[in-house]
Amino acid sequence: MSNSAVLPPRLVLDPLLHAWLVEDIGRGDRTTNSLLLQDVTLGSARWIAKASGIIAGLPVAARVFQILNEKVTFVALTPEGAWCEPGQVVAEIHGSLDALLMGERTALNLAMRLSGIATLTNIYVEKIADLPALLVDTRKTTPGLRLLEKYATALGGAINHRMGLDDAVMIKDNHIAAAGGIGEAVTRIRSQIPYPLTIEVETESLEQVKEALQHKADIIMLDNMPLDMMCQAVQLIRQQDSRVKIEASGNVTLETIRGVAETGVDYISSSAPITQSKWLDLSMKIAF
Question: Which of 137, 149, 200, 202 is catalytic?
Fold first, then answer.
């Protein structure tokens, strides 16, 4: 498990889980409430992997069940961030049967989604594992799920980019157009932001790279550049200001990521591990 993968505290996580449970349960689980007429019926369940991949989100799943009934116990048999194979028992759950049945779908959906992201992220990371460049995620996340999806990318070995617009300054093409140029954008923003926020500038040409250097950007993003231009940009930045970090972005795939890393950039940002990941199939089986 990556040391940088940290779940939000319960103060932040619980309201999200409450909302997602309400979305699914609505005015009440017609099936479970009609079936289980006793106040408390105890049961057990197993989570079983139906595909191979990295397991992510088990602490979140455990919390889903515990919100429904605090006495539910969730025992992870596969460690968070570990690889699993089809047929492997991932977790065992014990407690009130109505909580197990009502929490099943929300808990599984979250774990399957996060596991899929962690798995694909790790595949990307392994492509450049022997090179200095680091993979970072983006803000292309599912609304409401950003904290958890970025947790999953970190679990898969990536580095989190900014969580939101308040984390750092990133001057993109539309900001540059609105300001009338890179220099004007950097100058205006630098006079307004608090210390120690950094300023990143998105560039699409060598001329823009030179302008970003001239105005002392902290990070320069090379966006959708051909590899030969990217190599020239990296060389130019290293020669003029060694403190500047370099990020590459734009249409990064499993086929192209290594070539991008070999240009000498510090970071490669990609939305693909989140936007193109496939859910890892898990199932829950009740066993008394």
Answer: 202
